Amino acid sequence: MTLNFYVDGVSILRERLAPLPEDAPGRAVVRPAFSAKHAGCTGRSATRVRRGWLWGLSACLAGLAACAPALGLAQQSVPAQSPASQLVLSTPTAAPTAVQTNEPEQPSTGNIFPHKPGASHSYWDNLEGHLAIEVGVTGNPWTQTGRNFAQFYADRANTVTMNQIIGSLSHPVENIGGGYGIGFTFETLYGSDGRFDPTLGMGSGSLNGMYQWVPTQAHIDAKFPWIFKNGIDVQVGQLYGLLGTEGTPATARPFYTFSYAADYILPFEMLGVVVTAHLSDRMDWILGVDAGNSTSFGRYGNNNKPKGYFGFAWNHLLDGKLDMHIIGHFGPQGNNGIAVKSPDGLWTSAGAGAIANSKMQYNADFLATYRINKAMSVTVDGSYLHDDLLRDDAYGVATFFAYDLNPSLTLNARGEIFRDNTGGTITQFASTTSFTRSISNKPYPYYSAPPTTYGELTVGVSYRPDFINRHLDFGQLTIRPEIRLDKSLNGTRPFNKAAVPSAANGYAPVVTDGTNNMLWFNCDAIWAF
């Protein structure tokens, strides 16, 4: 199984486990992150808002065009990232897949060290470097805060944002003799998405503004011909979380915005070891141990207890039409430090003391993708979280539909229902450092909602304009406009307003006087090679 996928939604969901052709439109390879920019204009008249949003879209495209030429040479239609990052939008076979032979290979797009005809094959011939830039804008005429509630990466309304510049250096797992193989991936991200994708102790907090730098992947991948006929795969280091279907890199998901589950209950980053045992040609067993969600060790950990993954993946069932997985992540995730108050006394850190060492968090994810035909696919993703420390359950189901209308245009749709039983999970982080501070046992500003059942419907397209791409010397441009409606299905009103602790609300920043729905219009542009 090669975990590569296209930039467009349908191919992401349809070709998750098949190698991409050389000319595939922008292969990708990783999982989580991205949002919108500093506070924006919230014009009061419809005309002002409409013009502001159109200006933002134009600026989005213009900004991307301005950045692209300065970023170096590469061939057209190349993968946007590394081979191991594919974990998120594919079935969670977190480990390297097939071992390559030592036979000379055809040059592949994106390979920074192409094999010279007639020369003997070297391991380093397959070294690859990739780069992608994403610029986006969200249009929400009705917000009174400049924010889109219940969003991480697309939280800034009516503002153009450079979500990410993401680059990788990688080598696929390659045979080194005796059935053994080795590869690696190193990847880093800079942009507004970095606010929500840190790994504590790995550059976290090095930048504190709207645009932040984070390493997103740094792992060694190995193949061992042990125990099972197809062997076992091992990954060691920093990896993306294994649950869900929407990845951090822009090229690893069909939409600019994320589902509730992808933002709030599926782990983003992990530091640890993942083993994939190939029980058969169609079934994999996934095991892992890690330091926690976006945490590492020592003072950068959350507690002294291990966490881990356990699950199974089934590939190419029903004549190759069906892929699915069921994976869980288990362990204490609370911070065992002492709670700390901010100087003004309004905000408190998430420290819970020693009790955090025994309070478990359970994540589970079931994902199934069925390819109806060569152009259409349907994916169902069910997610569940139980947190002993928060005494909260959060769960939901999202369905994705993708249809390749033609080689340049893909129609994508997503529908989701998500329940937060106590209101303790869906939290809007109010500052550029709130998320990092929240997992670092530091006071952080936020606001939240009452217990709410959320509904969300998103429709969009992935457009790869041939009239532009055929003239590019390197890389490919993809534009993804979308329209999205979020709604409270149980009568709460959490959208388009904010809250701060005060005597009037019992010092609990819970939004109760907003709107019960949020209609917004979004677009991003991606240049990737």
From TrEMBL:
Positions of region (Disordered): 89-115
Transmembrane segment boundaries: 53-74
UniProt keyword annotation of Transmembrane present: yes
Keywords in alphabetical order: Membrane, Transmembrane, Transmembrane helix
Bias-annotated ranges (Polar residues): 89-111
One Pfam family matching this protein: BBP2
Name of this chain's protein: Outer membrane beta-barrel protein
